Amino acid sequence: MKFCKVCGEEIATKDGENTCRRCEDAQDDGDRKKLASAKANRRARESALRDLGMVKVRGALGGVYWE
Q1: Report field, pTM of the whole predicted structure over 0.85
Q2: Mean pLDDT of 8-26
Q3: What is the pLDDT of residues 18-35, one digit of tens each?
Q4: Which of 11, 8, 7, 1 is nearest to 27 (CA)?
Q5: How many CA atoms lie within 13 A of 24 on its CB side?
Q6: Please, which residues have CB within 8 angstroms of residue 8's CB and are 6 or more apart in sequence?
Q7: How many angstroms separate the CA atoms of 56 and 48, rounded?
Q8: Could you tell me if 67 and 54 are in contact, meaning their C-beta atoms sit under 8 angstroms apart?
Q9: pLDDT > 90: what percent of the chain?
Q10: Burial zone of 20 (CB within 10 Å; 0-12 exposed, 13-18 middle, 19+ buried)
């Protein structure tokens, strides 16, 4: 007898899978929203820096810098 680690309902899944499909899908939706929000924030930040006249450059060791 196994139970979902998120909601506590009884599940019949393979060993190592400890969440039900409903909880797994809800977690994936949250991850997608977080990723979309991070992309929007990065674009807004980069746009503001470009509006200030800064240029995005890549350093010799692979770092990204604004000059």
Answers
A1: no
A2: 82
A3: 888 888 888 777 778 888
A4: 7
A5: 8
A6: none
A7: 12
A8: yes
A9: 45
A10: buried
Answer left, alpha or beta for residue 61, where phi above 0 means left and psi between -120 and 50 means alpha. alpha
* Per-residue pLDDT reduced to its tens digit, 31-50: 788 888 999 999 999 999 99
The token pair at 55 is: 């240029």
* Residue whose entry in the numeric block shows the structure tokens 């909601």: 7
Q: Name the more confident of 28 and 63.
A: 63
Distances (CA, A) of 40 to 5, 23, 34: 32, 26, 10
- Give the tokens for residue 58: 């890549």
The DSSP letter of residue 39 is H
